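[Archive record]
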Amino acid sequence: MTATTATTTTVALWRDWRGWSSSITTLWRRSLRFRIISITVVLTSFAIFVTSLTMSLVIQNNLFESRRDEVLSDSLSAVAAAQRNLDSAAVSDDPSAARGLWADVQDTIPRAASSTHIAVFPIDELPVGSGVRAFTTDLDVDLLSAGLRESVVSFPERQSWQSIALTLSDGTTAPGIVVGQQMFMPEVGAFEVYIAYDLADSERTLQFVQSTLWAAGLILIALIAGISWVVMRSVSRPIIEAARTSARLAAGDLEVRLPVYGEDELATLATSFNAMADSIEAQIKELGELSLVQQRFVSDVSHELRTPLTTIRLAADMLNDQRHAFDATTNRTAELLHTQVQRFETLLSDLLEISRYDAGSVQLELEATSLAEVAEDIIGQMLPLAESRGSELRLVAPGGYSHVDMDPRRVRRVLRNLVGNAIEHGEGHPIVVTVDSNPYTVAVGVRDYGLGMDPDNAQRVFDRFWRADPSRQRTIGGTGLGLSIALGDARLHGGTLEVWSERGAGTNFVLTLPRVPGTHAADGPVPVHPEDALADVMGPADADPATELREVYFTETIPTIEEGTS
């Protein structure tokens, strides 16, 4: 395998692992059933593993101790039998009798010990011509440790033992125990007797017990996993059904209900949920009917008032046209009548628009339009009003010249409302209109440097008929519905209308529209929180505001070529 192939395989395995890990993480986060079953299986597996391991060690220890005690008893009996033969025989100085007795000992020990793994060594040097010598049968002397032999020599009255790896007759290796003790032959001396026993049968028994324990543990884990799945399925099904029903209820399907089975806690939950759904459905229907009545009332009143208002408007226009022929008091009365009739007509138009929004019957009339050009037109229309209030209108348009599908009438209405508010509350300071764009959105910001508002009040400017300062009178008209309608126009485009305001620092409104109709506006190119201050936009103290206004306006609105990359 080349290095490139190995690298490719490693990368593929890593990707597979990441995919599996991500899938498991998602399943763990989203599935209560998977999470509970996983926790149950893991904890059960750990408990069974600890229990099986403990039982295996206990059984292993008990088997070894039992076999060891059996081996020690057997070895003791075998050496005792040989010792009795030695003690009962009369050897004297006859070498042939000694050899015969020693041969009898060599037969007695294996027969009494039920083991052929035997080694016998004299402790001291044997007398010359005794006819006795050391012997071993199927026992490697190298397996006997120096410590064991030293213990046998040092303590003649007791047995010593050690664990060994015993080589069997077929060449395999099995665990074993070798037992050593002393045996004394009269007229000859003391001998070291070592008898080894294999523990192959005990090992096979232990392996069988261990395999049985582990198999039983695995079967038990599988059974517990199955039982947990069945239990969790019976418990989680009503919960899942309740979650789905809640989602459908939240989506507007007010007639959906949970089936009720039995009389247990889940049945109580389903009954309570259905009662809650009935209550919500009744309240929503009641509110819907009240809202429909309200919308119909506003719409009907607005339509009914239009006919007498048209007549009053014609009479007010005629009186206003002839007001110079009246005395001063009548002249002022005719002028006020004309102004208030115009405001009343604007209020009726706004109420009709609000009723359309409430009824959900507003439709966009999309047209490819340049937001920068719309801003230029609005600034041109608002110039006389700005001059009368001593404010300077400035247009900063690094982008926004490319055409985007929008409803130009509604966008113009939003900008006219924002610029008008900025002029009214700008305290005669400059007003900066910023237009910019990015690959996804176009945006326009209207920034004034007037008194501003507290952040809490700034979040309520889009409420209907709400005013930050109730004691302050409107000087350029307004119905209290303009910003609410502007917010509706922005949302209708899939855009946003946001506000920033700070006491003593002014206010900044930002309208952001998506380039593709029907999508939601992403982060816009015009920041809602401005970083400039009044000192950054004020010109020389002796400059003529009107002259500076026209210079800025005409200088910054000349570029109308299409943007290449905005």
About this structure: Confidence is low (pLDDT under 50) at residues 540-566.
